[in-house]
Each structure stands twice: as structure tokens, then as C-alpha cells.
């Protein structure tokens, strides 16, 4: 079978004591220097099944304004399904390199879908210690199964089931965030693409790294999505920038980590904040995560909601097609 050769971290052989120069971050970004080790606040954890609706709205609104990130428990996704999602993803990344490269992102592709290690287009930029696989899991019209691994054989079934449960979580989050803005429950979801919102799954695989103090799995960024819903594994690494500190997210088994992304910040005209976050890596263990990015279709136009704009609160962001926003962000162009 013919496959597209990609350089990935998994295909890189490194010395046991060092890493290639292109992975070493400048000192102002190195985890050993910049991670906060003192007493720090914890990322909020919220019970999504809270019977007190007003309390749930208040907690999610506060977390989305102050942190841009929170963890949810009692979210309705079965714990055994989360385990299966992790198992099939881990099995794929443990396959021989040539088997993974069957799913490589095509060289000339304008989409991020496929297996690889690079997102931004900057040949002079430092590299990140991560391999990834991207593919959409919803809606059915946007799915391209050529990027879905056939090995392990249960991969498709598990991801399709996960997509079904995700939709319920997504609807509850959008509804709660809408109500928190004083709007009808469906407003934010409709403004982010409605039933056409694309669920882009990414599996991040961060192999063990001989010098985790010098490099990053993913550099500091906000997500270009509306919302990101992330499953981590038990290896810590997700860090959030809050009050001038990099704070590590506590691992809570079966919790989902919710990131407010750029599109919700835009739609709310800055009331909700997209979270600045990054990922560190481990010396001894592979870290993995499974974010689902909720993205408007490419042609869909997103801007501050008119209901939130007034003479005293003018628009803080431009209104533009999502594909144009994404192009500017990935190519580091001004919005």
C-alpha cells in the first residue's frame, strides 16, 4: 500500500539524554522555569447534573468568564465508553509507523484531517513534542472515513457512539452559556452553526521525552473552536495561564475538560474568555488527550451577537467567515 511519508515524533530516534535543538523552547517558555509550584487555585469542577439550574448556570458563567476552562462530572457519557475511546486511540498510536502513515494528512490538503505532527506553517518555528490524528465525527455529511483507522477494528464503532453522547453534552453546554448571557437557550448554538456544527476529534500523542523540562507538547494558544471538550489520560500535562501563572490541570477520572474557544469569546463579545493553555510532556510515560473541537462550517459567518451590542458595548471583534478566521490563525496573520 502506498502511503505519504511524514516526519513525526514517533519516527524520531533521540539520544536518551537530549533532544534535537529544534524542540528546545526559549527560556521564557520552558516548563521547568515557568510552571507555578506554589499553592495555586484549582480549575473549577462542575456537576453537569446539578438539579439547581440557576446554580449550574452561575457556576458555568463564572468559570467561563474568569478561567475560560472548567471540568465537568456527571455529564452522562458512560465511563466505559471513555475507556474504550482511550483504548482504541492508544492502540492506533502504538501501531508500526508505516501503518499510521496510511492515514497521513495529504501534503497539499487545506484541511487539518489526517495523521501528522505539524499544524502551523512556519519552517523557522520550534517544533512541538507531539503527534496527532484529526478527523471529524459529526455531522455525518462532514465525515471522511479515509482518516478513520481500520485498526483496531472497533475504532469506528467506538467513535460513532462517542459522537452520539457528545451531542447531548454539547447541547447542554450551549444552552447554559446562552442563558448565562440573558438569551434564549438555542441562541449561541445557532450562532455557532446550529445542527451543522462540525465535531473535529483530535488525538494528541506525546511520547516520553528525555528532556521534558526544555520542550512543550503544544505551545501556548487559545482554541479556534467555539467550545472544546477534552478527555485526558492519567499523565498530567495540561496547563492553563491564570493570573500570570501556569497552573496544571488536576486529573479527575472520567471528567471532561471544557475549553471556551475563540468563537464563543467572539459571539459573547468578550464576556466569556477563550482559555490560554499549553501542554507539557513526561519523561517516562506517553501522555494522550482526545479533544473534540466544535467548529462552525467553513462558510459560516461568526461575529459578536447583535443582542449584546450597544452604544456602550460596541463590537470588540470582526465578523467573518470561520474559514477566513481559521486561515489567519493557522498562518499567524492578524484577524
UniProtKB/TrEMBL annotation:
Pfam families: 2OG-FeII_Oxy, DIOX_N. The keyword GTP-binding does not apply. SUPFAM superfamilies: Clavaminate synthase-like. Keywords: Dioxygenase, Flavonoid biosynthesis, Iron, Metal-binding, Oxidoreductase, Vitamin C. Residues 196-296 form the Fe2OG dioxygenase domain. The keyword Chloroplast does not apply. GO terms for molecular function: dioxygenase activity; L-ascorbic acid binding; metal ion binding. Belongs to the iron/ascorbate-dependent oxidoreductase family. This is Fe2OG dioxygenase domain-containing protein. InterPro entries: DIOX_N, IPNS-like_FE2OG_OXY, IPNS-like_sf, Iron_ascorbate_oxido_reductase, Oxoglu/Fe-dep_dioxygenase_dom. GO terms for biological process: flavonoid biosynthetic process; pigment biosynthetic process. Its cofactor is L-ascorbate.
